[in-house]
Amino acid sequence: MKQPKAAFFWYLLACLLVSFIVFYVTPAFRGEVVIRAGFFLGPIFIRFYGLIIGVSILISWIVVLRLADKRDLPVKKIENILFWTVVLGFLGARLYFVVFSWDFFKNNQESILKIWEGGMAIFGALMFGLFAALFQAKRSGLRFLTILDLLAVAFPLGQAIGRWGNFFNQEAYGIPTNLPWKMFIAPSARPGIFAQENFFHPTFLYESVWNLLIFGALLFVFNKNPKPGLLIGNYLILYSIGRFFIQPLRIDSLMLGSVRVDQITALLFMGLGILLILYAKFNEKNFREVF
Fold first, then answer.
1. What is the residue extent of each domain of the chain?
2. pLDDT tens, position by position, 232-273
3. Which of 10, 29, 108, 124 is 20 to 30 A away from residue 94, measured at CA?
């Protein structure tokens, strides 16, 4: 009975996603539907951004636990690692954004904690999240690279889902365009320089699709039981490549002088990914002793 129920669940989910795209996303891209940032539940305003981020974390959490089960890893220890990875990841995501947007926040410090308005940087989440995973894996007596490989498969799926929070916030979009998949942005969400433009690159969508492709590729490789470190190495390289080329299209890039911060960070993460792959492939014995 379990298989028919599972099949029905995935069928229903697919129908809901198709309906969402056909009857809401497509008209919204054409400017025929007003994109709402959230809804009121009594006196409380619930933002779709927060809900989607929560769903993305939950799904990633479930994926990690399922993958851990396939590797016969202790669930309780993995959940403890996940908890601190999420907590530190949130902190890092916000801190990264605030630090490189300090020109705004230094005069608006009350906005630092308003994460529901957006302003979460995935590279910051990765930096702090990887540190949390390293520390907690050591405390739990588990191999660091084994844990990172689990996270590497789940991360891009969570990112692909989480990017849709940008859709509802009407943020993380790109420069004006007339391409067939252009996205309408409400006047209130446009910067002054593009006030007369209507359609823009949906760069959040580009990244979402790219992350889904990464998830599929890494899940396929995971099932081949690769050497520890190869999955996290490939994830860092693949995600950073996509981000490096998508970032120039965005109009909200964090800047360090005339340089896009995220492109610099992407190059650093690519370098780290290459090192992880090289060590995993050619120095497995020494690498195992360290990690």
1. 37-290
2. 999 999 999 999 999 999 999 888 888 999 999 999 999 999
3. 29
